[in-house]
Amino acid sequence: MSVNEKRIRYLNKTSKSGGPILYWMSRDQRIRDNWAFVLAFQLACSRQSPFAVVFTLTPHFLGAGLRQYQFMMDGLCEVETELADLGIGFWLHIGEPAATIVEVVHQCRAGSVVTDFDPLHIKRQWKQELCRETNVEVLEVDAHNIVPAWETSSKLEFAARTIRPKIHRLLPEFLEPFSALEPLPTKFRLDVPKVDWDITRKAVNIETVSRSEEYIIPGGQAGHNALAQCVESKLIGYDTRRNDPLTDGQSGLSPYFHFGQLAPQRAALDVMSAKHIPENDKQAFLEELIVRRELSDNFCLYQSSYDTIDGAPDWAHKTLDAHRNDARSATYTFAEFESAQTHSSLWNAAQSEMVKAGKMHGYMRMYWAKKILEWTPSPEIAIDIALRLNDTYQLDGRDPNGVTGVMWSICGVHDRAFKERPIFGKIRYMNEAGCRRKFDVDGYIARWT
Ligand code: FAD
Ligand code: FO1
Q1: Is the terminal CB of the chain with fewer CB neighbours within 10 Å at N or C?
Q2: In this predicted model, what pLDDT tens digit does every residue of 21-76 receive, in sequence order?
Q3: How far apart are CA 347 and CA 446, in angstroms?
Q4: What lines the ligand 2 site, CB under 6 Å?
Q5: Which of 22, 29, 68, 72 to mutate to test the pocket of ligand 2 (most atoms within 8 A of CB)?
Q6: Is 413 a residue whose pLDDT tops 80?
Q7: Please, are residues 444 and 349 in contact by the beta-carbon 8 Å criterion?
Q8: Count of beta carbons in the 10 Å neighbourhood of residue 209
């Protein structure tokens, strides 16, 4: 199966030299169900060029700590083994990714680099440097979204209701099955140095880290097992249970999606073909998995101020400005939020869940972020604190979904205006009383503090 051309963007169209083909793996850290890998593999075979997969590892990625690096490295170890089984080299380099990939391209006189799409600023900068510093052909493949982000829409979408029909219209073309992996003909193997995992783990300071009891098992195989559990039973009742933080009602798949260890397209294909999942549960899950998630990439792709108040819709920016000087009942510093030292046991419990489990329940994330708006001196400080906490502690953080989730909560991105009130203005308000109407708040507090 060849890669649909619409999934590919040419970032550096140059004369194709016969040099090796590199798949510069980053967002989609898997070889199964990965269109970027498929394209690079096929280019190597069609151009009769050597082929290898490259990963450029930086110890400093958007606030990631031990927990995230441990999850990612365990997954990359698995990738190395799966590649070896296909006779393909996994070339891991430690260092600042942009400079490192330039060095690698020069070192092996690469003919083409295939990279996976990621709308985050940091990734665009990496790729801009690669295109500026080399004249290698660079092809970018959207291996994360089912419908390539640039095909879904060429502009910033206002809300789920505006992007939904655009995605659904294109699903028949793009929600296609994946072809099976096949071994690389030996003559196309690019020999690369074997990864020294001890040195690599030391580089990201995880040589000795104990796994917390809430540890989510990392890696592609664990991701597929988690998906199988969802398809088999976990998604039954999803529509009603997913907003109750005391039931294990969500899929739990976001860490695997974030690190690219599991393809959202794989999840969609498997859930859609599961006959025993009730239609309302199936649709509720697919709405989140496809529409909400791909809306986040649309926001980060087309809103250059995606992580500041300038990324808020005009009505929201105006209303937040109008209430900038409203009295706050309490204000807390980053450190007080981080150590769950607010006056609210419920908020503190949500923060504790995130710190202990590495994954806060989706419903609580909305409440958690909105209270940061209420208990900080300005919306700008609120965005900064929410993003820093989210990116430091969430396993699935440092992701377009996180940026968009914070901006939805604090700046009304993709949301509508509500009845005006202090501090929030017309931004949707949430409070403990609302939570108490939805679920057993005391049970949740007891669970996490
Ligand atoms: P499920 O309910 O099982 O959803 C399945 C998948 O659908 C998710 O893995 C995700 O890919 C997608 N999805 C679900 N809800 C959303 C949503 N609101 N927006 C976009 N995609 C969604 N998600 C992250 O992946 N990383 C984050 O850092 C993150 N931070 C958030 C911060 C705030 C303030 C808010 C309000 C939301 C945030 N989200 C984030 C979105 C959502 O809360 C998580 O995707 C979800 O809770 C992940 O758990 P799950 O996979 O078990 O969810
Ligand atoms: N991508 C890389 O290409 N190199 C890295 O060293 C790297 C580290 C990293 C650490 C934590 C984390 O959550 C993500 C990390 N990523 C890295 C990026 C990740 O693969 C995703 O592409 C983005 O975070 C999501 O868009």
Answers
A1: N
A2: 999 999 999 999 999 999 999 999 999 999 999 999 999 999 899 999 999 999 99
A3: 12
A4: 26-27, 29, 56-58, 61, 64, 68, 72, 97, 118, 120, 259-260, 398-400
A5: 72
A6: yes
A7: yes
A8: 13
